[in-house]
Design a protein that fits this description.
ten-stranded antiparallel sheet; binds 1-deoxynojirimycin; alpha+beta; 924 residues; Immunoglobulin-like; TIM Barrel
Amino acid sequence: MCVKSEEFKRCDQSGFCTRQRAYADLVEKTNTQNASPYKVIPNSIDFNKKEGLITAKVLKTANNTLDNATPLEVYFKLQLILLKSGSVRMKFEEAEDNIKTRFDVSTYALENNNPEPSKKIDTKNDQNSSTFTFNDENDKTTLILTYNPFKVEIVKDGQVVIGFNQNGYFNYEEHQQQNENDNISEEEKQRQNEINELIENTQKDMWSETFRSSTDTKPYGPESIGFDITFPGFKNVYGIPQHTSPLSLTTTRNNGDNGYNEPYRLYNLDVFEYILDSPMAIYGSIPFMLAHKNDQSAGFLFINASEMWIDVEKSNTDTLTHWMAESGKFDIIFFVGKTPKDVITTYMDIAGKPPLPQYFATAYHQCRWNYNDEADVLSVDQKFDEYNLPYDVIWLDIEHTDGKRYFTWDLTKFPDPVALQKAIADKGRKMVTIIDPHIKVDNNYYVYKEAKDQDLFVHNNQDKPFDGWCWPGSSSWVDFLKPEASKWLISQYDFEKYKGSTEILYTWIDMNEPSVFSGPETTMPKDNLHYGKVEHRDVHNIYGELYHKATYEGHLARRNNEDRPFILSRAFFIGSQRYGAIWTGDNDADWNHLKASIPMTLSIGLSGLSFCGADIGGFFNNPDKELYIRWYQTAVFQPFVRGHSHIDAKRREPWLYDDETINLVRDALYERYNLLPYWYTLFKEASVSGIPMTRPMFFEFPENEKLFEVDNQFMVGSDLLVKPVLEQGQTEISVYLPPSEKWYDYKTHKVVQTNEEGYLTIPTSLSTIPVYQRGGSIIPQRLRHRRSSKSMKHDPYTLLIALDEKNEAKGQFYVDDGESFGYKNGLFIYRTFIFANNILNCSKYRSPDNINESHNEDELLMISERIERVIIAGIDSKSIKSIQLVTNGVVKSLQFNVESDDIVIIKDPAIEMKEVDWKIEILY
Ligand code: NOJ
């Protein structure tokens, strides 16, 4: 399988990418890194200490500019906002713009668009710079604003960690009137040499651009923004999803050896049969980059939803990145922190954290394009039970509708959707239907008619409703910039309106890049018009998120804000995490796609969207038995777990394979269900701090350089290390277990011995899933096997304790009703377990977000279950004399089994999770 690359642009086929890359090349060729045409006018600098706000005028002069189309002098406004978190936001725009108002996406993308400014700021000025030192006493950040050439640098502990325009690539195309003489004459073209060609390229496709058969009219001319961001001292940078490249980003200007030749592209696209290890754009875009070295992390965010290209260049010590956006605002944030977690939490405070999902959403989902009819759905459901395979949700793809008219049912196949959902609900399960954003042009289709009558569709460049081609044929797309449009979509989810929908029906939104089969690069023309005459080019990368948001709000509204929505989206942007989950799109039943699912989900996760997964088995084609098993074994340790396949792929429910496969898939699924209490606690943590549930190794071991490029093993939370088997026919595997910790085999609870460097090699059979528990951790589990997460709701818990070198451990446990927002009013249980001095202590977890912890005990009784088992590994078990539970001064002696010299299992302490301040004492 292979993408048709020629259907998608390369940088040299994109006008602004060519212009910006040529500008950077000119700087390099002419050695003018220090001759940037932008300079800050010193006496224009104004500092508002209360708001942490620095403003200044910046002048661009033509005489030393590399771009000879620029007028003599242009003025700009610069804003720098120093934030309490140690971050810096920077905005830059034309001082006057009579041509077009640049689109400000920040109000849509950021949850907190006005983060708290720093209150403590010291300033110092010299001839060519101003220095601002801010943040609290213990942790100081310094910003240096250099006037000529204009430069911004962020300094931590005396070292520059991020720089803007250190390399002189800053090139902001201010709006300008088209001038007939702008084009270079033919004679000039004749005497092309390398430099002239670059100069020419800096003028390319300014006023219109044609790709294949589509012409983009660009009525506002060139307006792109290019600049360099340097990370001195950092060899590894991560993020800027969505791509199929390794976790640690690859260089992009290497002319073939070791690296890419193309910049990473961010432009939400429906790419049929996407290729691996490529900087090509696919469905989602998050212009967030993380840089990390052993004693420092840094982050960078470009709040801009237009098409973007990013070059990454590395030297032995530093990383230089070159950001190029087609239009929109210059609005960037620099983040600094000691560790990746520090940077992510600061970023997530601004971009917004994911809400706590419903409990069922964290379990296993079964999908296919398509489950054909009611009988098919009921039979699949019944077979899961017959084979004792747990699952929570059954999904219906586009064929369930009446001719791809979303919000309707094909009544010949699904004559009674309400009864069908009732049958599914009776088993404690849920259903999901797909609702795509393209709306069939059909005056007899009420959804189309309503939207058309209210003029809610995106317009074409002639300002008439845009008509393109997608699954239903001729279609239109709702314009979510129009306030009435979101309201209208929200109302479509009303149970009265969406006939055949019930309370257990949730939503999958697909094709929301948006995918337009007849459009340039299978998407919407850039000169289409949104509400307020905003061009589609300015909005493109957030379109899918706006649809996600309105769908989320539709679900909230249909149950009066009483039920947590579950919405899966394919396209995404900064902030999409606030509205639900995403998946990695149309992958292939191929070992390399299984491998790629790890860096892909980790990279999306560290960019904010941690509720993410890949289609199990691969969407296209047919996985053989081995790949199918290995995929389940990997995916159950990723945040979103769904089996899905293409309409032309063979049916592949587990019972269609042999007995061994069914058994191993069942075992893998139970690994997920056993750990749901741990996962749910991690989802809670993510909703409070933004830290992803699954993490690159370097998140947990930020000082261990060996881990900076590792993307074939990962951490689930802080405590489980997963090293999936990713090779066909693999008979042994080598795992790196950071030597700073003690490690346990998650299944046997035995301490594992690595070699001195930390490597462990183990044989692998088809049933092997290499998972290790970190010494010092306590993991909550539920070990009774049932048909769905709901049927486990009243099951008791097991605590799995693995002691560290000091014989200590700690962990958290969170639970609530799994459905409502009652947790916001204290309806939850959040516990901290600490094991030290041979005592296991349980206390209330004081969550950092100051949630009101006034419990409503009546409600809690319904969700409080007992602990039925405590397993302690790494303990001196031989000489234990007795074990006792102490609650409110009452002592009860407990039964226990010594499993081996260092494992003891305490039997049924029968203490409820809602109890606090109890302890279990081990007596010698
Ligand atoms: C494309 C999606 O990526 C895929 O998951 C889905 O099955 C098809 N569209 C049909 O809806």
